[in-house]
Amino acid sequence: MAALTFGILTVSDTCHRDPKKDTSGPSLKEQVLKSYSSVRIIQQIVPDEIEDIKSVLLNWSDEQKYNVILTTGGTGFSNRDVTPEATRQVIEKEAPGLSYAMISNSLAITKMAMLSRAVCGVRGKTMIINLPGSKKGATECFGFIKSCIPHAIALLTDQKDLVVLLHQSIQTKGGGDGIEVTPSKVKIDNVASRSRKSPYPLKEVSEATKIVLTQCTPTRSETEVVAFDQSVNRILAEDVYALAPVPPFRASIKDGYAVIAADGAGPRTIKEVAAAGDVPIEDVLKSGEAIRISTGAPLPPGADAVVQVEDTSIVTASPDGSVEVVIKIEIAPKLGQDIREIGSDVAVNSLVLNKYEQIKAAHVGVLAMLGKTEVMVFKRPSVGVISTGNEIGDPKEKLAPGKIRDANKFTLMNLLKKYSYDSMDCGIARDNPDSVKAVLERAFVYNDVIITSGGISMGEFDILKQVLVEDFGAEIHFARVNMKPGKPTTFATLTYHGKEKKFFGLPGNPVSCGVTCLLYIIPALRYMEQCANYKFPTIQIKNLPLVNNDSRPEYHRVQISFDPTIGEFKATSTGNQISSRLNSLVGANGLAIVKKGDPPTTLNVLLFDDLV
Ligand SMILES: Nc1nc2c(c(=O)[nH]1)N[C@H]1C(S)=C(S)[C@@H](COP(=O)(O)OP(=O)(O)OC[C@H]3O[C@@H](n4cnc5c(N)ncnc54)[C@H](O)[C@@H]3O)O[C@H]1N2
Ligand code: MOO
Ligand SMILES: [Mg+2]
Fold first, then answer.
1. From the CB of 477, is ligand 2 less than 6 Å away?
2. For residue 39, what pLDDT band results from cuts at 50, 70 and 90?
3. I want to staple 302 with a disulfide (CB 3.0 to 4.6 A). Which of 241, 285, 436, 610 is the partner?
4. Strand 126-131 versus strand 120-123 pairing type
């Protein structure tokens, strides 16, 4: 499931005059951020005016298509309190249960709750919820209903799978986001008797890649229909034919004059003007006549050539010089000159785009041109990203002693974005089985592919694999790969409430995490949406002086560029290749595969980013 989108609207004359006085809006924002694993929030303040409130509600629901709008303020009994009235004018369906839940729970705290006039409802696919104006009241009321929001959104946005999962896992007593989490079965109190060698065999990269792709090859071709302007980068699941010709009428290629070619060079009387967008002229052009025509305008019947204005001269103009009366064609036109015949760009019924093609910008333009406003594409897996570790902190918060900032989640989510995949921030799992289980559980509810970083090597707190196996019945396909960086890379599959999940456990070291995401996850995601044989291009580069003393083949980060002096590609190392030094990935567009020993004369380098 993509990030939930929230609009928080503070309705208050006072706060509108002085936004610093708004404490409810910011508190709600904080609470929303804490309540769900992946949210985007926008905030605004309007005065207590029906039209101002309505205008934001309409924009946020119809244009921005937010999942939820929370209003705070204007629900009381004073003259200026009009939020419920504005809301009622906007919603298409009322959801009184939400107001009831808020009022009945609030009554246990204060009798004043009975004075609430809050209205809740739905417009399109957006939930609109009135909350009280006070900070305490707004956050309390939101707390009473927040667990039902993901479920309501899943229903509104027709995510049937998610609805089923939530039904299966929702806690009857509510709380959190409604997903039931029980303690893990894994125990970590027997460190002395732990296995001192990894039980997982070391796989070669080629073997590991094959396993991933075999597991990720889609067995079913699930498709969905998307709006053409949302289809870029998706894989077409249908052949697209032109139901109408392009251009749909005979159109001029030049700004000039539509003429009859057989009239040759010489004078023409200007009969009419045809500009682009004009209704086509119906009168048949006669010998000796011309129509002033613009590029893209429809030709009049009878015209069989266009002469560009540069090849003409003026013979007679109206007395005030504003109108051309007779012009001269200087060069005899050829038949059909500068005319786009009907269907000359795209013939009717012709195959324009092919199934399995990836939709690029120009494809979207073609779809627009054909009036094909919806297109069938292969479904994409939803992807969730998790960081693990007691040491990991939010980059926005102050760093406590012994802690480090979470870099991996941001590298991963943005790497995925670069390859056009959205992902869900599924939070941070701490180094204990219950936390790992809880974070994974939430990620499994919403996602088909789950990516973690850290917690997979030989440390006593590296417990991910145990939790996967013991709590989720996962099958670990590999957990050690003969590569540097990325040795502990883990791949597992499991079935969660009847749905198949793919799990990629990437190493915690920031470079290892980025490199293994590129090598395993990007091709896997491509495969999962039916784009078979996805590979990064390999460039062979001569005389690359890279030495590897490790027994594991190294994926050395390099910058590839074209050297015009030798007419060949060259590559330069990004420096110290230690797995913790993320700067070795910064500026790299290639991975040079270096085996142990002396540098060979030619190295295979995978190009994973634009050439510099
Ligand atoms: N006894 C052994 N120890 C280690 C082995 C081994 O074979 N035997 N392998 C080493 C290799 S190679 C790697 S790679 C790492 C991978 O370890 P984990 O995947 O278990 O990751 P952690 O131990 O949790 O963390 C490693 C390192 O990365 C930092 N980290 C973790 N998450 C983040 C994040 N989100 N953002 C930034 N940095 C992160 C973490 O603090 C550690 O410094 O294991 C070796 N050990
Ligand atoms: O394999 Mo680790 O990923 O070297 O650093
Ligand atoms: Mg570790």
1. no
2. confident
3. 285
4. antiparallel
